[in-house]
Amino acid sequence: MMNSQLLQRETHEDRMGQNIAARLSSAADHLPHDISERLKVARMQALAKRKVALKLQTAPAAVVQGGVASLQMSGNDRSLWNRIASLLPLLALIAGLISIAVIAEDNRVNEMAEIDAELLTDELPPDAYTDPGFAQFLRLKSRD
Fold this sequence. Notes:
This protein has 144 residues and is mostly helical. The protein has helices spanning 2-28, 33-56, 80-121, 126-130, 132-143, and strands at 60-65, 68-73.
């Protein structure tokens, strides 16, 4: 729906521009030579500035297809800086995932070390925890 409206608007603008250009061109035939030469120079300067402006512009385009929207860069400007800038979010994501994994592993190791330290510094020997009678003793003690 939006694409057809946009296309319709662009074709209307193109037709209007062509009509204006045709009227200006027909009126230009009746101008004195010095004025037509000045207009020709001004037109060339405007076109030169327009070409430079077109090279500098890269407007992002939002494309909607099948209910999915995506951003795309227009033009073929694939310079090194654009490629680096497009890879930065991916690198940040990878660095974040690696740091989360390292921190989680470190926390797990610290918890296991605390449990080992408590087992080794407890009054009971570590073999007591594997004894089936000790598990029964703890269940009876928790009921009382």
